[in-house]
Amino acid sequence: MNTAATQPPELTTLPFEGMAKEAVFDALASFKKADVPWRSGRMLGYTYDPGEDPMSVAQEAYMQCLTENGLDWSVFPSMHKMETDIIHILRELLRGDDEVVGSCTSGGTESILCAVKAARDYGRVHKPHIVEPEMVLPETAHGAFHKACLYFNVKPVLTGYDPGTFLADVDSIRDAITKNTILIVASAPGYAQGVIDPIRKIGEVALEKNVLFHVDACVGGIHLSFMRRMGYDLPDFDFTVPGVTSISLDMHKYGYAPKNISSVLYRRKDLRFFQYFSNRRNTCYALVNPAILSTKSGGPYAGAWAILHYLGESGYRTIIKKVQDATNRCVAGINAIDGLRVLGKPDMCMFSFTSEGFNIFELADKVREKSFYMQPQFTHGNTPANLHVSLGHGTADSVDAALAMLREAVAEVKANPNPIDLELVRGTVHKMLADLGENAGDALRAMAGISEGGLPTQMALINSVFDALPNELAENMLSDYMNQVFV
Ligand SMILES: Cc1ncc(COP(=O)(O)O)c(C=O)c1O
User: Fold this and answer.
1) Is the pTM above the cut of 0.85?
2) Among 48, 112, 146, 218, which residue has the most ligand 1 atoms within 8 Å of its CB, making it the best to mutate?
3) Which residue, of 90, 142, 346, 419, is most buried by count of CB atoms within 10 Å of its CB?
């Protein structure tokens, strides 16, 4: 091992002599310098920080089980123990009875893929007339369902929502169900506006039509379950609702576990059976995978187990009280800023707000300039472009600073003499598409200022152009862009 402390300027090739330990860690630290500093509490999304002490416990547990392999729990019974404990706890939170079972997965997306795969294969056995399976989902449902449809050859049938409340439209769900429907989907809450769909009413439709019903509680299910236990007034969304057959619930979001860990729970074992995959058709060991991954680290399982047991119910309750109080202040504070408006009525600590009279994407850049981060979301039908805020334990204390920053940022954007006019961008994009058709890609990239291999620091123009693009073209350009950025 080379002990020289110097590190080569470029680290993209494999050194012949290994680097010194300090140089390895120095290099990693230098890579993180450009990341948004989430520890400051000013990154209102993406990270879920339970506080230094609980996080250090979860991280230590994570490291202790990092090398254990969940591929074979008969060799690593610790993996079986941690998983069954976690599922027991989550089942209780979701008020499931002893029949409810589940699996841990690597994240919300894997949980959703599993639920869709299980529903499709359940349909193959119990509704063999279905050859072209369909899934009914509101337009507010997460993109992971569209991914699942693509991967498992299920047709997504989109249904509407109320543009004022963002609640899924139950009648359009009922109308969209056909003899080919294998699954209905709703969210508790939807990520974008933090609103719980009318789960009870959709459950009635699911029973009436004899269709499986998945509730996506990935982002908020844990937070909401504790809120309910604490007496907050919330609509039911869990296994107490007749008709709900599966629920996805992430530990690595408002469970405050280190990434990557989520779960998917089923009302009965015979439903979960269709999620599993076994194979013995080759010269290899027999494969028995409960979810999508095969080899998997014990780290996330230990991290999740540790955070649940270290925080305990009282730890979560303390967090939730603090976060909900901060959310109420934040929503009221944003609504009080002239030109900003919170969309809908969020049920928990996530929400979005839009702007009136100026371009919200310019505000997003200003927010970033002021060392905060709020996530831009594009226009969708009648829903205007907006910025998303997820508050949590690590960000709740920054609310007053965030409001002061927003007041300043809005004033600066309004004073900007050269705003990017969204309507003008939209008109130019439409004209380019009309004139150049399929060949518009290069012109659009040039207009957005996307250069090969890097992101511009100012995202407002790029976001404004993407906002104006039709879905398919925007998706194509996003994949193409990522394809350029990564080796
Ligand atoms: C409601 C909802 N479902 C699913 C997902 C996907 O989760 P993951 O990013 O862990 O795959 C998210 C992510 O934010 C979400 O908010």
Assistant:
1) yes
2) 218
3) 90
